[in-house]
């Protein structure tokens, strides 16, 4: 159980570091302008690999990073917000299985 908690935390840290490195890389390439089209292209690329719930988490992470470092607010990008809403409209999350009392005793 404890290993699972540490593994999840390390995954979150790795995702955060990957996102910040990506943003730093964009800055180094002189593509500092995080315009609507740039962010829309990034999230449409991610939508092929990630679920909509993960996209929303990534959006929140990038929003807070850009707000802290660049004083930008990407929550005011209407095209990006509507894209994320369209992605999550048809998505239904998987329900986790519930253990029965026999399974709990066996475990």
Description of the structure:
- The protein has one domain.
- Helices cover 70% and strands 0% of the residues.
- It has 5 helices and no strands.
- Helix 2 (36-47) runs parallel beside helix 4.
- The protein is elongated.
Notable characteristics:
107 residues; mainly alpha; 70% helix; elongated; disordered N terminus
Shape: elongated
- Helices and strands, in order, run as HHHHH
Distance between the termini: 13 Å
Q: How large is the radius of gyration?
A: 18 Å
**Structural class by sheet pairing and helices:** mainly alpha
Give unreliable regions as ranges.
1-7
The tally of structural domains comes to 1
How many strands? 0
- Summarize the amount of helix as a percent range: over 70%
Largest sheet: none
Strand-residue proportion: under 5%
Average pLDDT for all residues: 75
Total of helices: 5
